[in-house]
Amino acid sequence: MNHLIKRLKEDLQLGVYAKRSTESYASSVLRLQRFYNKTLKDITEEGLRQSSILALLSK
Predict the structure, then answer these.
(1) HSE of 2, CA atoms in CB hemisphere, 13 A
(2) How many other CB atoms are found less than 10 A from the CB of residue 26?
(3) Torsion sign (Cα): 33, 37, 40, 46
(4) How far is residue 13's CA from residue 22's CA, in Å, rounded to a whole number?
(5) How confident is the model at residue 1 (pLDDT cuts 50, 70, 90)?
(6) Considering only CA atoms, which of 23, 49, 17 is closest in space to residue 36?
(7) Integer Cα distance of 27 and 35 in angstroms
(8) Residue scoring higher pLDDT (31 or 1)
(9) Which of the 8 DSSP states describes residue 38?
């Protein structure tokens, strides 16, 4: 399991999130990683923002 995903799950469990919520959040992050075809460390907030803007402009 990816170190960052494992850490995300641990952090969410500390925040008293339900197991289903924890799994859902981790699954969403993994889907994001697959979509961008990058490691989680390489996905930046600015990159996400630019992708969102480009998607909106292309509609």
Answers:
(1) 15
(2) 18
(3) negative
(4) 7
(5) low
(6) 49
(7) 12
(8) 31
(9) S
Q: Report the C-alpha gap between 23 and 13 in whole angstroms.
A: 10
pLDDT at 57 over 90: no
The first and second tokens of residue 40, run together, are 């989680």
Whole-angstrom Cα distance, residue 32 to residue 26? 10
pLDDT, tens digit, 9 for 90 and up, residues 3-39: 889 999 999 999 889 999 999 999 999 999 998 899 8
Measured between alpha carbons, how far is 46 from 19 in angstroms, rounded to an integer? 30
Residue 58 falls in which region: left (phi positive, over 0), alpha (psi -120 to 50) or beta: alpha
* pTM of the predicted structure, to 2 decimals: 0.73
Residue 36 corresponds to which tokens in the numbers above?
């961008």
Token reading at 49: 């923002």
